[in-house]
Amino acid sequence: MVVTRFAPSPTGYLHVGGARTALFNWLLARKTGGKFILRIEDTDLKRNTPSATQQVLADLHWLGIDWDEGPEVGGPNGPYFQSQRKEIYDYYVQKLIAEKKAYYCFDTAEEIERLRKEAQTNKQTFLYPRPQRFPEPEEARRAAAEGRPVTVRLAVTETEPIVVKDLLRGEVVFNPAEIGDFVILKSDGLPTYHLAVVVDDELMGVTHVIRGQEHLMNTPSHMLLQKALGFRTPQYLHLSVTVSESGGKLSKRERPETLRKAILQSDADLDALAWAGGLSRQELDLFLSGEKIPDMPAIDAMATYLGIHLPEINVVDFLKSGYLPETMVNFLALLGWSPADGQEIMDRQTLIASFDLNRLNKSNSFFDRKKLLAFNTEHIKRVPADMLVKHFRVFLETVGSPAAAADDAMLGHLLRINEGARTLAQIEEKCRFAFVADEAIEYDPEAVKKVLRKEGAIDILKTIAQRLQMLETFTAESLEAMLRHLAEEKQAGLGKIAQPLRVAITGTTISPPIFDAVNLLGLERTIKRIERAVQLFGQA
RNA sequence: GGCCCCAUCGUCUAGGCAGGUCUAGGACACCGGGUUUUCAACCCGGCAACAGGGGUUCGAAUCCCCUUGGGGCUACCA
Questions:
Q1: How far is the CA of A495 from the C1' of B37 (A)?
Q2: Fewest C-beta atoms under 10 Å: which of A334, A372, A376, A440?
Q3: Would the Cβ of A65 be found within 7 angstroms of any atom in strand B?
Q4: Which positions of A are annotated as active-site residues?
Q5: Å from the A325 CA to the B47 C1'
Q6: Model's pTM, two decimal places?
Q7: Cβ neighbours, 10 Å, residue A412
Q8: Nearest of A349, A29, A428 to residue A207 by alpha carbon
Q9: pLDDT score of A247
Q10: Which residues pair with A151 in a beta bridge?
Q11: What's the CA A335/C1' B15 distance, rounded, in angstroms?
């Protein structure tokens, strides 16, 4: 049976690159009827936080990537948090030491750094100088007592070339002489990634490791470790990386960086900005000098304050921008893979049915947000109505929209009258006017100038208000008939009637179709808003 | 610097492994037009690529080599 896994390090929200890796592992497991394991690689105490783990899980849930073993669901190979598997790793480390395949080291960071610099000036690859005689456990205990850092390194004695059989790239040959004795147990007693990953993959029965290309260079080290421990070697497949417009690998840093540049270029009041982000002025300055990156809510708040749009990087950023999980899964799958039939828009089931490792491609791909938008437009059209309502609600709640208070029937209605929308955010923006108090409507100066200040606009509004009051029954039909009739009467296009009305009730030139917009507000509130607009913009 | 990976329209890609059917197909973007009560959506049309050089071969986008370009890694991070 095929067993795959996704093993994120919880350093924050799940970003799209990680999501793509998770997706390919998940697709392979689902396609083959295998098993997909989620394992949390939280051995870096400095960077990992429990809340980050929750964020990653929530993001996976949102994407609809479910796991057969892991946090929340458990399984026979747990625990699924590496921080809870310390004894397991210790056992293997001791075994390697006893077999003289690994040894203790007591170097300080400074000493290592000095050796590394030295190698660099000599233009050589840094290789840790293995001692003639491996220290005894007793010596390690003494060193630790003296306060020296104690680590364990694998003794790399292999002389034959190491061949990584990559499912995508074929055989990649590495020279073992270039692999130094690497650390497998850190001085804090926790394993390094290399040891943990090898032990866990073996113990959890992982058969296929699909991971980013950045791990290709680690693979020979992992194979060495597997050999030393008498483990099996899983099938490896190293995915191409996804690059962003700035050239390099898509990175979480991109959002704070974009914001930082924007702040530096703007003439914003920094004290007010810091306040908006919930930061002290000092913290903001540290951010601007590039020394410290604030957390995500602060970044988001400052971007909102400045009115700038940051590139979406984390999965949750896409949720907040109004993308559907169906869109994300579909789009991510097509970054480096394509189905034999050339279909592009696919639902989850189709994706699974068409998935085939042989159709993965090797070159790096660029994350094209415009294409993503087109995909989203398409998926909004295709996702079943009740599912779309669910997504819409999650979106509204996540961004804290006043429309979140509406019931499902209303949300369904909003979605229907906004056919053709590109994102849920767009729909929310267009309909928000109906969920705020009449007096809270803010008139966009541009819209007022372009529409309400135009000759005759106010008169038309007055006429509309009158006719609305005269309406016997207020229905979508009677409203449409009235407005169309009015347009004919004035010998004008419907636009001449609809635009002033639109601006009067929404404050902007953008809204759902005018009949739907008025209908959404209701008779009374429409009249009230028209009257307010007339009052505000009636006199020159 | 060293090691490794990659290379088809602006972008994602099909074709490549099993050379001829490729005057290189699709999608997105872009441009032009249509439709229209705003924004979208929608319809029609158009632009646009085998990085360069050498081989192999009757024949190369496809196989080989070099160059160039891009990317990754080079931690007691994963």
A1: 5
A2: A440
A3: no
A4: 252
A5: 34
A6: 0.94
A7: 16
A8: A29
A9: 65
A10: A105
A11: 18
